[in-house]
Design the sequence.
């Protein structure tokens, strides 16, 4: 199976979780990663700089109409929803908050499912609300791969637990195991190219 | 928090999913669906004159699917028939597709830059015309009015505030906002370099505030559609923030042409903090006043 993108949703406890993920992912990791992290609306995104110091792959804020490319990590800007178009470019909107959040994980995941159908991997990590549940389920319905952080290992268990309570994701794993799985998929992806 | 006690599903979730999953189960034909949406937008334009054909697909699709879930409509064909034959429903559909989210002093640092970089330019003109394009319910227009009052420019300014959505324009004219939101706006106002307290500009009861009548006398509210209407007036300053992000590249370029034709030489254009001129034909026709806050000055 050729996966074309990974979407990750993360809320409270997210910075620590992402530090772990991006210190473990190798430089040559090639599936593009797109992240929604809940963050204050006037945030200056200093945390992206912080993460970049730890990361082997460069992380950047997603730009309006930017094309999604291999080997890159994109992060939703504060106070905008991040949507993916069928032509694999980004749209930013200032629509109403969804699940009290802008950016909302559901918005990213649902549009990712529409754009990539079964060629998408959705990951729900630590967080203290239920954003991401509906979107991850949509990814599953469209045939994509769904991964949820094991709530027992999450800094804040509610968001992963909410997803698991609504449907059966393909994998429930601690962070380190999620990274291992993603690396394995990436290697297989490259072999089948 | 004990997550082992989480309910297996919540009612809100079931409600939302009933619509979308029943409707579009696994492996739906996304391309066919998009063609049907285009067909719907085409028909809507020809019947009612509102043109959403060049809006972001992903955004429009989300809005349409939400409407279908809310109204229990099973497919896009059914939605199209209802939109074309039921004017009340069509009016609700128009509201669905409109972007009405706004706040006072949204992006406080933008307003700070406006004070520092644009007000000195405006001070050189004997009369000032400002065009606020896509003003929605008016929060940013009143923000501008406050700023102009504090900078002593209000009396010689006319603000043209336009939107294609008459319903939001009517609300903007009233200038009534909720007290709860006003508390958030007060923080924005402070961060933007506000010189007084925001409560100086309205009167309130427990739930709502109404903006001072004196602020309204220099504001002209008008119906104008950026997609289908032409040049509105010749102005010194245009604000159009977080509208163009919804448009495709070609439509963005058309609207930039409209803005360029509406500005006097040396006039100022303000876009949303994630919007740019980079992929339009007009990038070279402006100099940059503030890169980060997306404030541009039309070249002579």
Sequence:
């Amino acid at each position: 199976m050729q996966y074309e993108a990974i979407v990750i949703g993360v809320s409270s406890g997210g910075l620590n979780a992402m530090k772990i993920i991006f210190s473990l992912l190798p430089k040559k990791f090639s599936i593009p990663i797109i992240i929604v992290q809940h963050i204050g609306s006037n945030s200056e995104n200093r945390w992206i700089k912080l993460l970049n110091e730890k990361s082997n792959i460069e992380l950047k804020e997603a730009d309006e109409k930017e094309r999604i490319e291999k080997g890159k990590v994109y992060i939703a800007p504060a106070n905008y929803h991040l949507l993916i178009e069928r032509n694999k470019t980004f749209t930013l909107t200032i629509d109403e908050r969804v699940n009290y959040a802008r950016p909302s994980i559901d918005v990213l995941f649902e549009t990712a499912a529409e754009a990539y159908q079964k060629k998408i991997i959705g990951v729900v990590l630590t967080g203290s609300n239920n954003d991401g549940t509906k979107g991850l389920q949509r990814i599953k319905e469209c045939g994509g791969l769904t991964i949820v952080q094991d709530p027992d290992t999450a800094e804040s268990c509610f968001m992963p637990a909410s997803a698991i309570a609504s449907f059966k994701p393909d994998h429930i794993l601690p962070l380190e195991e999620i990274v291992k799985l993603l690396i394995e998929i990436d290697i297989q992806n490259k072999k089948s190219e | 928090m004990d997550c082992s006690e989480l309910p297996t599903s919540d009612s809100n979730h079931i409600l939302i999913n009933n619509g979308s999953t029943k409707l579009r189960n696994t492996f739906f034909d996304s391309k066919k669906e998009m063609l049907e949406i285009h067909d719907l937008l085409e028909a809507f334009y020809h019947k009612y004159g509102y043109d959403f054909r060049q809006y972001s697909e992903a955004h429009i699709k989300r809005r349409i699917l939400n409407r279908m879930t809310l109204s229990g409509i099973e497919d896009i064909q059914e939605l199209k028939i209802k939109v074309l034959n039921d004017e009340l429903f069509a009016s609700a559909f128009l509201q669905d597709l409109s972007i009405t989210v706004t706040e006072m002093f949204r992006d406080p640092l933008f307003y700070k830059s406006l004070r520092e970089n644009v007000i000195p330019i405006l001070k050189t003109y004997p009369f000032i015309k400002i065009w606020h394009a896509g003003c929605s319910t008016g929060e940013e227009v009143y923000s501008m009015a406050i700023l102009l009052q504090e900078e002593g420019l209000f009396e010689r300014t006319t603000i043209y505030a336009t939107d294609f959505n008459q319903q939001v324009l009517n609300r903007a004219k009233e200038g009534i906002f909720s007290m709860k939101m006003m508390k958030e706006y007060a923080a924005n106002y402070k961060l933007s370099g506000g010189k007084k307290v925001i409560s100086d500009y309205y009167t309130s009861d427990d739930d709502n505030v109404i903006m001072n009548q004196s602020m309204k006398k220099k504001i002209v509210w008008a119906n104008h559609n950026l997609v289908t209407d032409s040049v509105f007036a010749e102005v010194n300053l245009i604000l159009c923030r977080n509208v163009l992000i919804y448009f495709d590249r070609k439509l963005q370029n058309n609207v930039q042409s409209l803005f360029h034709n509406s500005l006097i030489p040396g006039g100022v254009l303000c876009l949303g903090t994630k919007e740019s001129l980079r992929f339009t034909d007009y990038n070279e026709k402006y100099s940059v006043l503030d890169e980060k806050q997306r404030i541009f000055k039309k070249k002579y």
User: Anything to note?
Assistant: Chain B touches chain A through 40 residues (CB under 8 Å). The beta strands of chain B are 128-133, 157-163, 176-178, 202-204, 208-211, 219-223, 235-240, 263-271, 286-290, 295-298.
